[in-house]
Amino acid sequence: MAKDKNSEDYVGPIRRLAVGLLVLVLFGIFLFWRIDSPRAERLRAEAIDTFVPSFAWAMAPINGVINLISDFESYQQLRAQNQDLRRELQQMKAWKEAALQLEQENAKLLDLNNVSLDPQLTYVTGVVITDSGSPFRQSVLVNVGARDGIIDGWPTMDGIGLVGRIAGVGQNTSRVMLLTDTSSRIPVTIQPSGQNAILGGDNTLNPPLEFLEDTAMVRPGDRVVSSGDGGVFPADLLVGQVALGTDNRLRVRLAADYQRLEFLRVLRSQPHEEIPDPTDLLAPEAEFFGPAALTPSALTTSEVGDG
C-alpha cells in the first residue's frame, strides 16, 4: 500500500510538468509561426514540406467522410430530380393520351368530310352520347333530334360506311338502330355481279346476306352497297364487303367501325310516300271476263229451281 502511495506522489508532479512543457512548446511554436522574418519563413516552409505530405494518410478518413457527405447530398438531389421527372412523365402520358384521342377524333371528322355522297344529300353530324346496346338490341343515341330536323327512318353513316337508321326521334336526341340489330333489314346490292339481297342483322358484327338471287355469282371480297329499293335508304351507300362466315354463310364485313362510334352523319334522304292506311296498297277491283260469279240471289234461285 505504501508503494502505491509513493507512485501516486510521483505521477502527479510529472504529469503537471509534462503539461506545462507541452504548453510552452505550443506557445513557442505559435510565437515562431507569428514571427515575420525570412529565416522563420524558410523554416516554416521546410516544416510544411517535411511533415504535411506524411499526414495525408491521417487526412484520408476526414476526406472520406467529406466525400461521403457530398455524395449523400448529391443522392438526395438526384432523388428529388427523379421524383420530379416521374411526375413530369405522368403528365406527359396524360397529354399523350389526350393528344391521341384528339388525333382520332380529328381523323374521324376528316373522314366524315371526305366521304363523297350524292350532291342532293345533305346531312347533320351528331355525337354519340351513349351506347344502349344489349344482347337483344343494338342501337346508340346521338345528340341531334327533332330540333335539328331529324326524321325517323333517315340513314346514318360514320366516316366510311353505313351504320344504321334513325329509329326514334326525341326533341334533343335520336336513337340509331344499327345494321347489326336483329330488327334491321335493308336491301343491298353486291358489286360487280349486281346481285340483290337483304342484309339482316343478327347481333354480330358480320350480319348475313339473305335472299340472294344467285349465290354462285357472289365472291368474298365483293363490294356491298345499299340498293335504294323501297325508297328508305339512298342507293350506292357503302355497307361493306362480302365474307364467308365460319358457318359457311355469306356475310358482310361492315365498313363502319362499330368499336369506335363517336360521330355519326345523319343523311337527309328524300322523303318517301307515307301510306297511312295499308288498304290503299290494294289494287282496285278488276273486271272479270268470264262466267259471272254467282250472287247470293242467283244461288238461292238455282237452289230453289233444283229443288
Rg over C-alpha atoms, rounded to the nearest angstrom: 50 Å
Largest sheet: 6 strands, antiparallel, barrel
Strand/helix succession: HHHEEEEEEEEEEEEH
Shape: rod-shaped
Portion of residues in helices? 25-40%
The chain-level mean pLDDT equals 76
Task: Give the assembly state of these chains.
Answer: single chain
Secondary-structure arrangement, i.e. CATH architecture of the domain at 122-268 = Beta Barrel
CATH superfamily of the domain at 122-268: Rod shape-determining protein MreC, domain 1
Query: In percent terms, what proportion of residues is strand?
Result: 15-25%
Can you give a write-up of this model?
This protein is an alpha+beta fold and 307 residues long. Among the domains are: 2-51; 122-268, Rod shape-determining protein MreC, domain 1 (Thrombin, subunit H, Beta Barrel). Helix content is 38%, strand content 22%. The strands form two sheets. A six-stranded antiparallel barrel has the order 1-2-5-4-3-12. A six-stranded antiparallel sheet has the order 8-7-6-9-10-11, with no helix packed on it. A hairpin with a 3-residue loop joins strand 6 (185-191) and strand 7. It is rod-shaped. The N and C termini lie far apart (174 Å).
Question: Briefly, what is this?
Answer:
This protein is α+β, with helices and mostly antiparallel strands and 307 residues long. Helix content is 38%, strand content 22%.
Provide the descriptors you would attach to this structure in a database record.
Thrombin, subunit H, six-stranded antiparallel sheet, disordered C terminus, 4 helices, six-stranded antiparallel barrel, rod-shaped
